[in-house]
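Pair request: fold both.
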Amino acid sequence: MSEIKSVAQINLLKWMLEDLRKVTLEGVKHLTKEQLFTPPVENEFCIGSYIMHLAEADISWYETISGKKVPDELKKKSYYGCWFDSGPDFNPPSEPPEYNDYFEAIAETRKIFLEYVSSLDDSELEDTVTVKRKIGDRETSKKWIIYHIIEHEAHTRGQMFMLIRKAGWNKKS
């Protein structure tokens, strides 16, 4: 008799990741290419950088949770490590990316992350991985990493939506 894979928790986490992204996209799709690249308020990153930051998070956590690398081409496409909170490597694009570039990048990175999550069994959620940090490595569960991706996007989405309102770029009813 073959063993049945237990995926109730995995399916819930995947649904949360997908639903969260759907709401995020709904809240920014009305912006123009120029609005995505223009800082919404003084001394703030542009909304496009926040969108690409979601791709960065998917890439970084995918590499941590799976132990696999994302192709350099996708990292470049996502402006990985060179735009949002990049520190000394700050090297954002000098011209606005094409409108669809933002959404294709986050779709590709989320697809890779979701495919990995789909490969898991619920029993693997408590498996731990080493998270490398400047202040010291720590062990964390795969479940916490998936939760953190969800929590991080909700936080980032709130920042984007607030900045969109402050700029007066709200959706017109």
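--- second member of the pair ---
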Amino acid sequence: MTKNGVVKILIAGMVGGFIGNGVMGALFSSPPIQSILYNPEWQSQLFIEITQKRNIPVSVAGLVILSMIHAWLFNVLMPSIPGKTWMKKGLFWGLTIWLMYWLFQEWFIYNTLLGEPLLLNVLELIILMLGSLIEGIVIAFFLARKNEA
């Protein structure tokens, strides 16, 4: 395995985070998804009140910084990540991000603390899965592609 430099790792994380979170943001902001997630007949009132107060630019910046950590961890763990191609490693890494971050957050924060119904959690988790897979693929594109035989 060839070690990737710090700059390459940071770029992989920034680009992966920006694209993955951009896809999620676009989907979450779309009128059909908004009409489902913010329907007061389906959604908890606490969720509606609190989530509309969040600072989107600060949230996105934090997620992109988190993605740089994901890229660093990918680089460290790359030899042990399943898959013989960068794409398969990226898909596995995206699934890992989703399982270790978003699944926990959706259950603990949105379902348990804010009272979001399980079916709405599932809708969000599907969107978050897509963004996580994209993030993992982009990170692997930058950091694992050159290592293929």
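Observation on the second member. Helices lie at 6-29, 31-37, 45-51, 56-77, 86-113, 118-143.
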